[in-house]
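Supplementary Note 3. Input sequence used for the single-chain structure prediction.
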Amino acid sequence: METIIKTEKRESGLDALRGFAILTMVLSGIIPYRVLPTWMYHAQLPPPEHMFNPAIPGITWVDLVFPFFLFALGAAIPFALNRRLQKGNSLYSITWDVVWRGILLIFFAIFLQHVRPYTLNPEPGLSVWLISLAGFAVLFAIFLRVPSTWPLWSQPTLRIAGWVAAIVMLLVLKYPDGSGFSLYRSDIIIIVLANMAIAGALIWLATRNSILVRLSILGLLLALRLSSGEEGWVEPLRATSPVPWAFKLYYLQYLFIVIPGTIAGDMLHRVMESTAERNEPVWSGHTYRLLTMASALLVPVMLIGLHGRYVAATLIATIIIVISVYILVSGEVNNREQLYRNLFYFGAYFLFLGLMFEPYEGGIRKDSPTMSYYMVTTGLSFNMLLVFKLLMEHFEIQKGMTLLSDNGQNPMIAYVGMMNLFLPLLALSGIDALIRSVTTAPWAGFIRGFAYTVALAFIVQSFTRHKLYWRT
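The predicted structure, written as discrete structure tokens, is reproduced below.
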């Protein structure tokens, strides 16, 4: 998970988006299979068999959570690296730090997959749950950034103990097929995030003074994508990798989401660092409410329209919403309202770009990702970031939002916590079996998953409130 350094200034809307993404990612992984409607699962993995079918076009809410997190990763890059530059760190030291943190994320992906309960045994018992808990403790020791109030010796002691325990576990653990440690046994989501954290940060460093140059990289990526599968030098390059367990050229396509995220991060950072005093709102309360509702409305419009294959109707509805907002927010604004307006405009641009790409590659799909998927999810990421910022900054809604924000500040614990902390504790106590026995109905199973996710969110919030952060 991407690195966030605790400072006095935080971008609360971005934290909330990240928290929303990570918690919905957790929820999507624990809802009951086979029994819920198709829109509750990845569009290309429909119930009841959940067999991958790349011919099915459309997206569901489950297909949005990973792009939202990738976008938040990109938006956080200008905050983290500008801070290093302002402290006078050299480009060499920053570059090395970026690469090293990416390497740590790759280790995180490999170790985590080795200690997941259902990787160890599809029907976990006492020993498996205990190993999973031990895996959480090892990760805690390795990645915890100890609070300043702890003794100085605690950080190196925990790190050394964690690394030694991790090596021992990787050497001795066995799996259902009789195999042991493998570099190829890894969490693909974290592997992709590690690649994006490195590539996105290095691209931002090289283009931080020119957004146009950064956008031109998207053109190179598009050319690379269009040439894939064709005769020539691109396909052999795409198909090879010196470390295929850690990097594939294919992963760079997710920069279609991360690079726009860095542009959003630049805009957020400029406003946060602005020395100008915050002006009184120029827009009326009515304008703020309609902007918030319109930005949020675009999410179900895209999901319902593209999953139901009402593509023309989706385009018309999007045009109506965007033109209405354009008329609503045109005119004089203060610097913060200019940011809100720009976020909406960028989101609208990528949504239209995604809808223009929709017929290409047989319709929008997450698997394998189409150009329409990258563009639409990027547009919706801008929209959701705007919604969270408006709710927290203008409407000052804190209840519920702080829960998301606190989870967004500690995404590594949130990602690991369900399978390696919360479920093992419930299983060992017998509570999970009891709850499952009374939640066998399809939607009762979803409510169980939702309740588990909320409970995990409060656990992660407790870690955050006690300043116990996991960082690479």
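The chain is about 65% helix and 0% strand. The beta strands are 144-145, 469-470.
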